Amino acid sequence: MSVKQIVLLVILVVFAVFVLQNTQVLEIRLLFWKVEASRALVLVITFALGIAAGFLLRMVTKKGKKAA
Question: Is residue 66 part of a domain?
């Protein structure tokens, strides 16, 4: 296993433990919209959005370097 894979595995394990310890229900409000959801679900969705944003940003910066 490479160092990158080990670091990724450690991050995923720490994240999984963190999510499993935060299972309370919370209320999310945005303007006139209100929903109750598990804190674990909110954390997983936020984590996935962060990964997607990082991936998209990486793709955009790679395209910009290719064009230059």
Answer: yes
Q: What is the pTM of this model?
A: 0.64
**Segments forming the whole domain that contains residue 50:** 39-68
In whole angstroms, give the CA distance from residue 12 to residue 64: 30
- How high is the mean pLDDT in each 10-residue block of the chain (68 residues)? 90 88 87 89 89 91 70
Helix (H) or strand (E) holding 31: none
Q: Which helix (H) or strand (E) holds 42?
A: helix 39-67
Total domains in the fold of the chain? 1
Q: Report yes or no: 33 and 45 within 8 Å, Cβ to Cβ.
A: no
Is 2 part of a structural domain of the chain?
no
